[in-house]
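Aim 2 progress. For Ribosomal RNA small subunit methyltransferase H, the working sequence is reproduced below.
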Amino acid sequence: MKPNTFSHTSVLLRESIEGLCIHPAGVYVDCTLGGGGHSQWICEALGENGILVGIDQDDFALDYAKKRLENYTCQRYFVKSNFASLAKVLESLHLFGIDGILYDLGVSSFQLDDDTRGFSYHHDGPLDMRMNQSADLTAETVVNDYPPGELKKILFLYGEEKFASQIVKSIVKAREVKRITSTLELSEIIKRAYPPRERNKEKHPSRKTFQAIRLEVNGELKILEDALSQGLDALKPGGRMCVITFHSLEDRVVKHFFKNRANPCTCPPDFPQCVCGKKPELKIISRKPIAPGQDEQEQNRRSRSAKLRIIEKLGTGS
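Predicted structure tokens for this construct:
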């Protein structure tokens, strides 16, 4: 794919927009603007007094979304930032008491499809993987400069890669000869490190390692819980939060965050009543994560691992 082209299909679009329960004059934040697919539906539901805030750290995404949404009548703010800075973004816009917040986590389709961004193990490109191309840390640095022990830890924790030891040994051996600089070069090293019986299964051998390196480069899991906390603080009572995840690590963080904030009581189970004084901050709307329907999964393979969780903020007296 050429860097200036774009193809993107928003995942769980109808379900997430319905989950936000959009009010025409409300304030809504798309914390992961991407190509503006979810934001377009938010704008469709907003009137002239409604406000959309779109946050993304990718310049191309921001420019594309601005053009896509330019004809809507609601107020629109586009901010280059990371959702870890949500509170500062809203403060700078003097917006408080938000009606709805959406997080569509992971890498965007256009980033995956752009070979120059280095996210794909199917096509050759530089080992980059930065969502914010102004950031310093790249995948090339992680692969070539991280100590073997740290690299193994990342593959095991962020990729849940059971062959992490073998892969790291192969990477270290290869980088001693020459610096690893391309995606297909790394992918081939990973493939050779896999046991022969595992190489040709349905899922690509490089999938978990590339995921792990991407998460490290962009610090996605490190900032997620804090970002969710900022989002919950920003919501007004009755406000909704929708979170779409694409792998088990993300979903686990979101699930536990929501569960702990919905039931924060630390009293022993045998106590007749709560004495710790901790009150629920939210109620969980989707008791089980919402998955894409069969049609969506068939039309968009990247939606197959997606899960949507929805919560509603409670009032102080709840």
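The radius of gyration is 21 Å. This observation will guide construct design in the next reporting period.
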